[in-house]
From TrEMBL:
GO terms for molecular function: potassium ion transmembrane transporter activity. It is found in: Membrane. InterPro entries: K+_transporter, K_trans_C, K_trans_N. The keyword Zinc does not apply. Belongs to the HAK/KUP transporter (TC 2.A.72.3) family. It is a multi-pass membrane protein. Residues 35-177 form the K+ potassium transporter integral membrane domain. The chain crosses the membrane at residues 52-72, 84-103, 109-132, 139-158. This is Potassium transporter. The keyword Hydrolase does not apply. GO terms for cellular component: membrane.
Length: 424
């Protein structure tokens, strides 16, 4: 995942205590996404990076507290459960602190061992006293720990298997080149946005779709939306655009990066920014310097670049907005919500550039469709019972957990879901 320049400056600066706090907190956010079903994560501060609040976890804790209180109805059993949980947290913190001493502070291993021996011995005495009360209420935090560990292990296992399936079944660029500019199907008017988690290669959902329905849009965009561990991503650095295959194919890849405090744009604003970014990439790709830089055979992932879509927008009264260096200027028809793009009156660039820009704008005028994958996970025939249970539990959790945030802003009238079964 590519970070913006201010993220690079922050991460590669002096390694102060705030740096390590930033690093560990963002690693925690990463681990939550890898080992736990998708939940809402609220970053509470723009100054101190990585401070998070998870409302779903608070609700779960409230329900568990009520269940334990109503179940035991005895402060002695509740105290035993609380005591074992607290002393276990202290033991784990002591062992993790030894890693901080070695890795972050750069002290010797002998110093870390002495730290563990001194504090760990004291905490081990308290732990042994709490374990004696296991059958008198202390079993509750142990049971909950095993439950959450089971969920985390299953989610991690399913996530890895799903990613491996996507990587192993993605379509090669050679397959795309063999189809030719028409892709062997009917190219209808409009722009097709194919959402994918892959930043390279062609997802299997595309081949699955064209195999069953041999028709697709004249302009294809493989869209990948990523969240980066910084508060804001500048608009000039948000869109990363590349080309898949030759220019005649009209297939592009776009990686959109959002910071955790960035507000996702609505569908009209996003479409406008996306089209302008692709147009800016087309203009830069036709420059003589860019052509010399990318001479040679077409290879997947070679031509990705960060583009800045600056444009001039006219309001309903025809008053122009801020000036721009991009010649493609969107215009808003009076009394209409739809943004209409038009080429500049003064000709510029090569004929190929003008033709590609014209095709892009005609496709935008025809409309934009959002293609989402709706996948199901199933274990292969002959799999062990443990694997079948893990895959079934993972698929249940994935289908009933929170979806990606960008799905909320996608208009349902322009959404097309493609079902696909993952056999892992």
């Amino acid at each position: 995942m590519a970070c913006s320049s201010n993220c690079y400056t922050y991460c590669c600066g002096g390694k102060s205590s705030s740096y390590y706090g930033y690093l560990f907190n963002n690693q925690a956010v990463f681990l939550i996404g890898l080992f736990f079903p998708r939940v809402k994560i609220v970053n509470t501060s723009s100054t101190f990076h990585g401070q998070i609040y998870i409302p779903d976890i608070n609700w779960v804790l409230m329900l568990l507290c009520l269940a334990v209180t109503m179940g035991f109805r005895d402060t002695k059993h509740i105290g035993n459960a609380s005591g074992l949980a607290i002393i276990t947290v202290m033991l784990v913190t002591t062992f993790l602190m030894s890693l901080v001493i070695i890795i972050c502070w750069g002290r010797s291993i002998l110093f870390a061992i002495c730290f563990i021996f001194f504090f760990g011995t004291i905490e081990a005495l308290y732990f042994s006293a709490a374990v004696i009360k296991f059958l008198e209420g202390a079993w509750v935090p142990v049971a909950l720990s095993f439950l959450f560990m089971f969920i985390m292990c299953v989610w991690h296992y399913g996530t890895i298997k799903k990613y491996e399936f996507d990587v192993q079944n993605k379509v090669s660029i050679k397959w795309l080149l063999d189809l030719g500019p028409s892709l062997g199907i009917v190219r209808v008017r409009g722009i097709g946005l194919i959402h994918t988690d892959l930043v390279s290669g062609i997802p299997a959902i595309f081949s699955h779709f064209v195999t069953n329905i041999p028709a697709f849009h004249q302009v294809l965009v493989f869209l990948c939306i990523k969240s980066v561990p910084i508060p804001h991503v500048k608009l000039e650095e948000r869109f990363m655009v590349g080309r898949i295959g030759p220019r005649d194919f009209r297939i592009y890849r776009c990686i959109v990066r959002y910071g955790y405090h960035d507000v996702h744009m609505d569908d009209l604003e996003f479409e406008k920014e996306l089209v302008c970014s692709i147009a800016a990439f087309i203009k830069s790709s036709y420059s003589a310097e860019h052509n010399r830089l990318f001479e040679g055979p077409v290879k997947e992932g070679e031509k990705m670049e960060v583009v800045s879509a600056r444009f001039q927008l006219e309001d309903h009264d025809g008053v122009p907005g801020p000036s721009t260096s991009l010649e493609m200027q969107p215009k808003v028809a009076s009394g209409a919500k739809k943004v209409r793009f038009a080429l500049p009156e003064s000709p510029g660039g090569t004929c190929g550039e003008r033709e590609e820009l014209q095709d892009l704008l005609e496709a935008r005028e025809a409309g934009m469709a959002f293609v989402l994958g709706h996948s199901y996970m199933k274990a292969k025939a002959g799999s062990t019972m443990v694997k079948k249970v893990a895959i079934n539990v993972y698929d249940f959790l994935r289908r009933n957990s929170r979806g990606p945030s960008y799905v909320i802003s996608i208009p349902h009238a322009s959404t097309l879901e493609v079902g696909m079964v993952y056999l892992v």
